[in-house]
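Dock pyridoxal-5'-phosphate; give full complex structure.
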Amino acid sequence: MFDVNRVRADFPILSRQVNGKPLVYLDNGASAQKPQVVIDAITQAYSLEYANVHRGLHYLSNLATDKYEAVRGIVARFLNAPSEDDIVFTSGTTEGINLVSYAWAAPRLQAGDEIVLSVMEHHANIVPWHFLRERQGVVLKWVNCDANGDLDPAEVIAAIGPKTKLVAITQMSNVLGTVVDVASICKAAREKGVPVLVDGSQSAVHMPIDVQAIGCDFFAITGHKLYGPSGSGAIFIRPERMAEMQPFLGGGDMIREVTRDTVSYNDAPMKFEAGTPGIVQQIGMGVALDYLMGLGMDRIAAHEQQLRDYARSRLAGLNWLNVQGNSETKGAIFSFTLQGAAHAHDISTVLDKRGIAVRAGTHCAMPLMDHMGVGATCRASFAMYNTEAEVDALISALELCHELFA
Ligand code: PLP
């Protein structure tokens, strides 16, 4: 049983007020709030257990190293990866995808090779591939979603041709909440010998993840959306792909030996982790993932689905509001515009005055906004600690917007 009030009590920020009103935090798609256990772990790490990792032979360095390295196993459990050696730490999904672009794709792809993408990708899963287009003549092949925001896996599979070297696809749109059937895409791509990178930034927050069942080659997550610190993250990499990767960033920790004339590298995954990492950030992410697993990702998903259904039915009652891409199977993320002249920024400003935090703009997904034919939207993105009462607060604030701007 998922007790939302108990979960809320774990997040100190949720009891504060904003602009004299109780905070209604609906900007979780951008970044989630942190539970007390994560805040305490950060404080403890800095106040009592801090030193650089991997290098020292002293007590604190060993302690910090043990705590930091233990997170690899936690991430592996969270994603059901076969081994913690399949997990590379990153500062977030952006770094994870850039790592794949620089370390795996750039040395392998040639002019004319294709990367298949959906139009729903976040810029973090577009721009690293544009680099390859600009620098190496790689071709980006786009697959559209329909007006409902649904992406047909058959269309993605059909786009995989003899020149396709990678499919890079999100499991959940950060704008529309659309959930993509990545397992079907991975199965078909595998049969054609094409690796798949899954952007799990949004999906991993809202549903149980099993990278073995999905069958992907790369699966990127970002800690700050998972109720952990900013600057934390990880990417699962299938061992065959890891073996094909060249080091990306060079520096400390990723080497075995450096001489004036030669360099040899550490074993993976450390081969891909140069320099002093986000030690405390990753320790905090480990605590956040343990917290989520303790609550149960399936229970979190069930709570959020109820919230999604309630929000969908309440928003449907506002006939002057357009919800973009309102798929039946989407997660609890709603992007909308108001009929008339009101700009998304004006709406979010009015909501903010009522203590309601939403995001307005193009959500780092310009190709999608272009495809949907909207310049900017407001986005209310729900998390496990949100309630139906908060949906009601959103609806009454939107009714006020309608009165003000109609
Ligand atoms: N992919 C998706 C779907 C996202 O929503 C985000 C963040 O908004 C990212 C990638 C980038 O994540 P980060 O900025 O944490 O690296």
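Observed: The radius of gyration is 22 Å.
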